[in-house]
Amino acid sequence: MPTRRELNLAIFEGTADGVLWQPRLETWIDHHTALGTLPERFQHLDSFGIYDALRCSVRYAATQGIDWYQTRDDIVRIEETHPNHTIQRVRTPLGEITTVYRDVWEDDKRINHRIEDFPVKTAQDLRVATDLIDRQQVRADPDAFRRASERVGDRAEPTTFLTSSGFTDLIKFWCGLPGTYYLLADHPAEVEAFLEATDRRDDRLIDEALKLPYRIFNLGDHATNEFTPPPILKKYLLPRWQRISERLHQAGRFVHSHWDGNSRHMLPFLRETGLDGVEALTPAPMGDMTLEMIKDAVGDSMVVLDLLPAIDFLPNHKTEDLLDFTRRAVDMFAPKLILGVSDEISQPGEIEKIEAITELLDNEYGLPD
Hints:
- The protein is of the alpha/beta class.
- The chain has a single domain, classed as TIM Barrel, CATH 3.20.20.
- It is built from twelve helices and 13 strands.
- The protein has helices at 4-13, 26-35, 47-53, 123-135, 142-152, 166-174, 176-186, 188-209, 230-250, 291-298, 319-333, 351-364; strands spanning 20-21, 66-70, 76-81, 85-92, 95-106, 109-117, 136-140, 159-162, 216-223, 254-259, 277-279, 303-309, 337-342.
- The longest helix is centred in the middle third of the chain and has 22 residues, at 188-209.
């Protein structure tokens, strides 16, 4: 039987004959480690030890070897810390932008740090953001990759991140959802200039990433019906996916994108993307699509990563129903399937359900060691 690492790569190569169980557990592990609530059997294990005890593969455990740095030193960064929020100012020769984060505290620990007020609201703000993107540079560090790959061992084929799309970056980090669409309507030239800058950044990153022996790459796009409906997807995301896929395929690499949330209206475009797979599609009732819809979209050619809704791991959901859903997913999608949680088990999720799926998969399909 192949190792988890060999099976991971074989699934993308189209030569696999087995099931890889690769749920993302880091959020659950970090949460319970911080609170001292790890089950006793895990308390003396590190993260890899917990994965090994559960006989799970690890998806993003070797994301090392790509270092970011910034050109020129004419930027001033100021951070103000207040009881319930943090203010970050970035001052450049083109102007200043300010981000306000809401901080949520519990027992003197910050448990949430999220953007409350986005930094880009005007066309001039967007010019500042574009300048910041143009300054971002990348260098490969083969030694860091080698060390990370050795730590992962046979647990998984190393996978690393490329950037998400410029359009979803605008939504997630710069403008928010309404702000992005208002700017697109009112200042399309400035938005296009920002997106062109992110395309140039993609090229710089790929230049360096291809110096490393990674075979699998992820684009953390967070594409959804709400973020990237079909008109936006066709104009801004589809050409990018096609361009990046072609370049990586020419170099013998594989690439998948992260689509989470409601994505049913984007499914018809999946096979046009040129991507090798799609991560985190979430079936109903958590998402807005069925397994059958997803299967129709990917056919037998694309790798699907995850599929098991995170809500099914909560205490009020029956384990037997989850196991039945797991059987359906495996039977429909294997061997072009990397089974996981869409997109990760949450802090209150029951780790016993991860163990139950491990037992099911091993008994009925056979799991690699």
